[in-house]
């Protein structure tokens, strides 16, 4: 797979299991470039947690690892990474929601097709939505990618809670007819890749790698007699691969600006304005992190400089979309 970041669910608690994964990656690559984010738990147990493994030559962790909510905290975690190439940042929220296999009372199977513990999974989804602004504030960036085994199919309540919060289901966008899990002949996505609007504009693809879900369980790694040193049936879920071009925005009928018409930004927003520089600037939009247009400025005739007032903006994160000709550039600013 050769990923820059691996976001893994159901890894054994403590450090032994994740260190073994890192050692295996480094051995296969013949380097020491892979490392993991230490969640601070050293107690070895059969309980599981979520972990981040990353390529140290490509990305750098930004600030500390965080947990989300109070329910099984190590299954709801977040970490930001900076891309070394251009210092662009993304936040990954990695989650493992309650399974469908058990529940009592209101969490018992309601026979609506969503299995047991749907109420619990809804609660986890709402907690995640409510924590997004805190993650944006702490990691100082609006680009969030929500990954993991959410134990809910795309049209079930927990996923609708996320998409109703202006988050984008990337698998529905890029691979809507595919699946990541097979159970008693039924197929669908229990594993997801969901993005904030600003993040979704920097995604180029999202798809499952079919190495597990279609394979018989007897070929799993725990059955030594049938073990084979290849990726097949290394888990019961297919991994989801999400590819990004951080710092570039796509879509909406306009092309992302090329080097020829790149936009530069100067100044301090505390001074009440910022200066934008670029060829043939003809429109400037200010958007919220959810993609809502707050201010539109039309420039006629087009100019090489534009003064953007910032004293009218409240504290927070904003996207600045600068059009010049048939292209645009999206910039991110913070109003402190």
Written account of the structure:
The protein is α+β, with helices and mostly antiparallel strands. It has two domains: 240 residues, Endonuclease/exonuclease/phosphatase (Deoxyribonuclease I, Chain A); 72 residues, Immunoglobulin-like (Sandwich), CATH 2.60.40. The protein is 15% helix and 38% strand. The strands form five sheets. The protein has a six-stranded mixed beta sheet with strand order 4-5-6-7-11-8. Strands 14, 15, 16, 17, 18 and 19 form a six-stranded mixed beta sheet that branches. It is globular. The chain starts with a strand and ends with a strand. The relative contact order is 0.09.
Give me the CATH architecture of the largest domain, please. Answer: 4-Layer Sandwich
Rg (CA only)? 22 Å
Total beta strand runs: 19
Taking the sheet with the most strands, its summary is:
6 strands, mixed
Helical residues, percent: 10-25%
Which fold name corresponds to the CATH topology of the largest domain? Deoxyribonuclease I, Chain A
Treating each run of at least 4 consecutive H or I residues as one helix, how many helices? Answer: 5
Mean pLDDT: 89
The first-level CATH class of the largest domain is given as Alpha Beta
CATH superfamily of the largest domain: Endonuclease/exonuclease/phosphatase
Uncertain residue segments: 249-260
Number of domains: 2
Structural class: alpha+beta
- How big a fraction of the residues is strand? 35-45%
Shape: globular
The N- to C-terminal Cα distance equals 40 Å
């Amino acid at each position: 797979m050769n990923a820059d970041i691996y976001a893994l669910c159901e890894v054994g608690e403590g450090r032994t299991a994740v260190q073994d994964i890192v050692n295996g990656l480094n051995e296969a690559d013949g380097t020491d470039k892979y490392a993991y984010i230490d969640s601070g738990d050293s107690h070895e147990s059969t309980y599981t947690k979520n972990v981040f493994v990353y390529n140290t030559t490509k990305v750098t962790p930004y600030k500390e690892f965080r947990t989300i909510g109070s329910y099984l905290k190590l299954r709801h975690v977040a970490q930001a990474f900076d891309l070394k190439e251009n210092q662009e940042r993304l936040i990954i929220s990695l989650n493992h929601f309650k399974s469908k296999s058990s529940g009592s009372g209101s969490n018992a199977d309601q026979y609506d097709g969503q299995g047991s513990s749907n109420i619990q999974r809804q609660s986890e989804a709402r907690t995640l939505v409510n924590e997004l602004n805190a993650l944006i504030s702490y990691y100082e960036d609006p680009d969030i990618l929500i990954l993991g085994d959410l134990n809910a199919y795309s049209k079930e309540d927990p996923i609708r809670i996320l998409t109703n919060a202006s988050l984008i289901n990337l698998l529905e966008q890029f691979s809507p007819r595919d699946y990541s899990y097979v159970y008693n002949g039924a197929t669908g996505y229990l594993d997801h890749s969901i993005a904030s609007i600003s993040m979704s504009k920097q995604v180029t693809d999202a798809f499952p790698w079919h190495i597990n879900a279609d394979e018989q369980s007897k070929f799993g790694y725990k059955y030594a007699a049938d073990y084979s040193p290849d990726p097949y049936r290394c888990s019961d879920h297919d991994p989801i691969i999400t590819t990004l071009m951080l710092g570039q925005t796509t879509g909406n009928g306009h092309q992302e600006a090329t080097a020829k018409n790149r936009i530069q930004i100067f100044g301090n927003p505390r001074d009440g304005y910022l200066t934008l520089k670029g060829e043939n600037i003809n429109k400037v939009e200010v958007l919220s992190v959810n993609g809502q247009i707050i201010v539109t400025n039309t420039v006629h005739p087009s100019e090489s400089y534009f003064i953007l007032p910032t004293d009218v903006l409240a504290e927070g994160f904003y996207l600045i979309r600068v059009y010049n000709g048939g292209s645009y550039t999206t910039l991110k600013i913070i109003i402190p």
